[in-house]
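User: Okay, second chain of the day. Same drill as before: sequence in, structure tokens out.
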Amino acid sequence: MDAKAGAKERFREVEKTVLDLSHRIHARPELGFEEENASRWLAEALDAAGFEVQLGVCDLPTAFTARAGHGPLHVAICAEYDSLPGIGHACGHNMIAAMAIGAGIAAAKAADEVGLTVHVIGTPAEEVGNASGKVLMLERGAFAGIHAAMMVHPAPVEMIEAHLIAASMFDVHYTGKEAHAAAFPELGINAADALTVAQTAIGLLRQHLKQTDRVHGIVTHGGDAPNVVPAHTSAKYIVRGENLKELEDVRTKVYRCFEAGATATGAKLEIRGGDKPFAEMRFDHEMNRIYKRNAEAAGRTFPELGPEMQKVTASTDMGNVSHAIPSIHPMIGISSLPAVNHQPEFTAHCVTQEADRAVREGALAMAWTAIEMAEDVKLSERLRTGS
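Assistant: Same drill. Structure tokens below.
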């Protein structure tokens, strides 16, 4: 039996466990850095499969690392498992986690045979948009010694290289002064007005932004009572640019809009976060070609994408990993259209038969890709030496 056939056989042995993980995580969504159940379930499955598992690594209680095999090429498969507020697993992180566990266990079957060490790295809080799991784990050494990394992300349709750009999420806080809104309004400093001025300034700024820039946010607190001048308001914003350099440019402009709100009203401004942004994704094209070939062998098809799907833009902290080590982040289709990521309808699609099929085939494609990377002497040497 060749290595890939052995990996497939091993996956079939754990397929029920893998799909059960996807459904259990979906049924109990947990927000970033709060994924206590998901991280424990995933770690337990890997431990039962013979991996050396460490939970709570990098001073992050819901992060973990798991390792199997003793080959010279170290390949990491990244698991994400946090959900979105209010709409649960509307980005399919339950599937990402299950695929990572299935791929890791399957690849481990042939690891020593082909010269591979398999790492499954549990990375919490991808949706937080700043100082997220992968960003902090990179800083704290979880990816040290890793030669290549991969993960597969659900989407409406199959894509090898989605448009994944840089992003920065931050919180804005204005502090003014309360006053009776009718009797003594002149004694108040209106923090809600400060936020309104800032939002107006951002709206006017849009005509001067690049087509690849993105600015979007929500008001998280707008005041407490209509007859009290609001002394405290807050908002959460995301700014995106084509790359880290362009992100810094647009973020500086947006920050000035928030400063304008403070200047106009006299409120005090505080911006929290935004200091550990997501980088744009750098794809290793050779790894992507291998993944595509193995995904097709597993049963996937890659359609010609129309103009609308080619314009799809998102961000991920896997971009930060890709700046440190060769990485890929293909999208796996679950036939969800017209439902798309970050819609409740997409949440429902992430536990359908089509989603389960994607978990099976995505896991196998990643396992076979890791095996083929180890068997390819030239590629393995390039990844190990960085040449």
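The two ends are 33 Å apart (CA to CA).

User: Thanks, on to the next one.
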